[in-house]
Design goal:
The protein is mainly beta. The protein has one domain. It is built from two helices and nine strands, in the order βαβββαβββββ. Strands 1, 2, 3, 4, 7 and 8 form a six-stranded antiparallel beta sheet that branches. A three-stranded antiparallel beta sheet has the order 5-6-9, with no helix packed on it. It is elongated, with a radius of gyration of 14 Å. It starts with a strand and ends with a strand.
Amino acid sequence: MAFSCRKLLPAGVAAAAAAIIPVSSFAYDFCYDDPAISVTSNNGHQTTVYVTSYASGSEHAPQLAAQTIDYVVATKGNTVTVHVFIPNGDDAAPFTTAATVSTGPQSSGKLLAGSWGQSGKTISLSFKVPGN
């Protein structure tokens, strides 16, 4: 996985993340990863979304690289829930995490869902499949 660590988030990421991350938090040194996932709805419609996940502090880059991402589609309707799990560090101490789901890379396009989290706990992000 390719990921980046920065003191300041890129403009597109900052704009989308501002919806879930208070401005005062931008002082953090965040690492982020931005994999694309292909989601298939109940009616067979397939779309690609981007899961941008964040870990506070460049020292947590290995945990971000070890994250797991999966999704489930509700049995009725086209609601998708993406699960993002970023493990704790070697010292087992939790650290701040966040994740967004959007229609474009680095939280560009339409922001579908976003939330703060904590390492060692799953972030669940629910949204309707775009185009349905």
